[in-house]
Design a protein that fits this description.
The chain is built from 23 helices and 21 strands. It is of the alpha/beta class and 702 residues long. The protein has a seven-stranded parallel beta sheet, sandwiched between helices. The protein has a six-stranded parallel beta sheet with strand order 16-21-20-17-19-18, with helices on both faces. A five-stranded mixed barrel has the order 2-3-4-6-5. Strand 3 and strand 4 form a beta hairpin. 42% of the residues are buried.
């Protein structure tokens, strides 16, 4: 279905709007982050929400206008006092009065006579701005508005305030907003009448008018009916997209896999421990999906060290019982290698062929591995995204396991299974995700959760110290390393920065070398994969005692003997990062410690983060607190992950609406999978309006 004709005014280039030339159009295209090769459109303006409002309704006499208040005054202009010629630092002053007192209007660098034209002596003008004082006299510096009495109706008494960029004035943007809002067509309603009435929500067009052109400040409030309705709309379009992705992936017929139990039993015997209850439950859920004729699309989320890789191995063993292959894809070579090291010995004991395939392998070795994958000799392949490049042919790919799924978006989820026509998909993440965000970003997937840590995992003692205690920290570290311990020391930057007063990994490495000599090494993201691998191998083999690193070690590094984690400038890390980094220790039999070193002064948010990490090791509790402290924007990592961004919905205020949007989208597709008739037209309009049109081709005939 093509885009509804009624939406054309909103999809026109900004060039077509009166007053927008090449320069302003280019500025707005950069500001709104339009895709490469495309221009910003009218819809970008409409979806650019105000961050607040200015209330100019206070119309009083000068005597009742108080310091820092924004007022609108009706003034009689008495005289002008321009600056002496050539003295641009001296302001142009306009003296004016009303029946209650006197005031000065102050303009700096006012050249060209425009002030005299705007405020002619002897005439009246409405002036709006913030009251200030200078030498005991009331004044307004650079009034926001000066209008003739006949033009008073053009003065916005309640004015939205928008986020801006250099070169874009609030007046220029406000003028554009008014033009775009006036062009919004009446649209078919996608919210049912009962929900609208119950919540007292306006129509989409009325909601946009209330937010962008409010007559009362309350109309634009985040918790007001207009903004609530728009937040729901955005969530609904996102949920409908994810439900369509899910129905597409599961409707593509999979294979009802048959299990003999033979290989999974061999893997179970090979494990040096028994599965936790959570792992057993996840295996049951995954096997049920694999046995179904629909394709599996499941998210396995578990805290750091909860044993997701073993659950994935049990799933891959089950698939192997039916003669099919599996692949485990990780976002980095370090993580892929780590997974391979975990899986390979277990696979060998269970009689499963397991290979590692990365982009940096010698050509001859790579060709040999590709041959074994194509022949089916290799049952499990571990690697990076290189697994899905052309040239990698599987004999019979049955299951794709993806680690750290938050690095991949909805588009990639649809593309991942193309290597195998009936491939099931299991996705793993060590980032515990609050329920709100599971629905927001993974609403297309079934979810299994691992909450327990494997038996035998040691608790981690967490302490918070000022960097002023550096000497004590070094002395204690020397004693612990002499006893045989190994430690990580993490810094936020690779090298010194001109802009940030932060100790870099390179500088800290140089300092620690003076104390620990060749027992210490450095690893960071700018090193070659081979160099990083060599350092990590030496650390794993206990040839090195202390590893200075950046967050390159955040995910997937498993050195059981490492029992100390020191994070310098801990105030600069997010909660999820701090939790992930702490999870690199506590993996062996020795009680472990995590030391958070901070530099004063601490902001309230940084203090709250450090208090949270100190008080709990529960990743799910930490994730919920992270959402409260940071909002939805970046809890899962980076915006460029292909996840849906939200411009109207604000998680702190609107998160309760996502449950309703999820249920409503699910119910809509259950009763109308082809989105036909008036109801379907309205839903499709919402998808286009909120730029979720990637979902349109996924709509199936009922």
């Amino acid at each position: 279905m093509s885009r509804p004709e009624s939406l054309s005014p909103l999809f026109r280039s900004l060039h077509s709007i009166k007053g927008v030339g090449d320069k302003l159009a280019a500025l707005l295209t950069r500001f709104f982050g339009a895709p490469e090769g495309q221009e910003a459109i009218a819809l970008d303006i409409l979806m650019h929400m105000p961050s607040g409002v200015v209330d100019r309704r206070r119309q009083v006499g000068i005597a009742e206008a108080y310091l820092n208040q924004i007022v609108t005054l009706r003034l009689h202009v008495d005289r002008h006092q321009p600056p002496p010629r050539g003295k641009l630092h001296v302001p142009h002053r306009v003296f004016a009065h009303d029946d209650t007192g006197d005031i000065q209007l102050v303009f700096f660098r006012a050249q060209g006579g425009w002030v005299e034209k705007a405020l002619p002596i002897g005439e009246e003008r409405f002036v709006s701005g913030q009251i200030g004082f200078f030498n005991g006299e009331k004044q307004i510096t650079h009034p926001d508005y000066v209008v003739e009495p006949a033009q008073f109706a053009t003065l916005p008494l309640v004015e939205p305030v928008y986020p801006l960029t250099q070169g874009l004035s609030s007046k220029a943007l406000g003028k554009l907003v008014r033009q775009v809002v006036d062009s919004v067509p009446e649209l078919p309603e996608w919210i049912d009448a009962e929900t609208l009435a119950k919540n007292k929500w306006p129509s989409f067009v009325e909601a946009m008018r209330s937010v962008h052109l409010p007559e009362q400040p309350s109309e634009a409030e985040l918790w007001g009916p207009a903004r609530m309705r728009l937040a729901y709309d955005e969530y609904f379009a996102g949920q409908l997209t994810l439900q369509l992705v899910r129905s597409t992936m599961t409707a593509a017929r999979g294979i009802a896999r048959v299990f003999t139990g033979e290989i999974t039993e061999r893997v179970t015997h090979a494990l040096p421990f028994s599965l936790t209850e959570g792992q057993q439950q996840a295996v049951v859920e995954i096997r049920a999906d694999l046995a179904s004729p629909d394709r599996m699309s499941r998210l396995l989320q578990g805290d750091v060290g909860s044993g997701k890789t073993v659950v994935a191995l049990m799933a891959m063993a089950a698939v192997a019982e039916g003669g099919a292959q599996s692949t485990l894809m990780a976002p980095t070579e370090i993580l892929a290698t780590q997974h391979f090291k975990t899986l390979k010995p277990l696979c060998d004991m269970a009689g499963l062929g397991c290979e590692l395939l990365t982009g940096k392998m010698p050509a001859a070795e790579r060709r040999a591995i590709l041959g074994r994958i194509a022949s089916g000799e290799t049952t499990i392949v571990v690697g990076t995204h290189a697994l899905f490049q052309s040239g990698v042919e599987f004999h019979n790919l049955g299951l794709t396991v993806v680690d750290e799924q938050h690095r991949f978006g909805v588009h990639q989820r649809l593309a991942l299974s193309d290597k195998g026509r009936h491939t099931d998909l299991l996705v793993m993440t060590a980032t515990p995700i609050p329920r709100t965000l599971v629905l927001t970003h993974f609403g297309d997937m079934a979810v299994s959760v691992l909450r327990e840590k494997p038996r035998g995992r040691q608790p981690i003692d967490t302490a918070v110290l000022s960097i002023g205690d550096y000497g004590r920290v070094i002395a204690r570290l020397q004693a612990r390393l002499a006893e045989g311990a190994q430690a990580f020391w993490v810094c936020p930057l690779v090298e010194e920065s001109e802009h940030l007063d932060v100790v870099s990994a390179e500088d800290r490495f140089a300092e620690l070398q003076k104390v620990f000599g060749d027992q210490v090494a450095l690893v960071h993201g700018r090193m070659s994969a081979a160099a990083k691998q060599e350092v990590m191998q030496r650390f794993s083999a206990n040839e090195l005692k202390l590893l200075v690193a950046t967050t390159v070690i955040e995910v997937g590094v498993d050195v059981p003997n490492a029992s100390i984690m020191i994070i310098e400038h801990a105030e600069r890390f997010g909660l999820a990062q701090l939790h992930q980094l702490r999870g690199r220790v506590g993996r062996g039999s020795v009680r472990s410690a995590c030391l958070l070193l901070y530099k004063e002064p601490l902001s309230e948010t940084a203090k709250a983060r450090l208090d949270t990490i100190k008080s709990t090791e529960d990743g799910f509790e930490i994730a919920e607190r992270d959402l409260e402290l940071r909002g939805q924007g970046d809890v899962l990592g980076t915006r460029q992950s292909g996840m849906p961004g939200y411009r109207l919905a604000v998680a702190d205020v609107h998160r309760h609406l996502i449950d309703y949007a999820h249920d409503d989208a699910k119910a809509l597709l259950a009763r109308n999978p082809g989105l036909t008739g008036a109801e379907g037209d309205a839903a499709r309009t919402a998808l286009y309006l909120f730029r979720r049109d990637l979902a349109i081709p996924l709509i199936r005939a009922g």
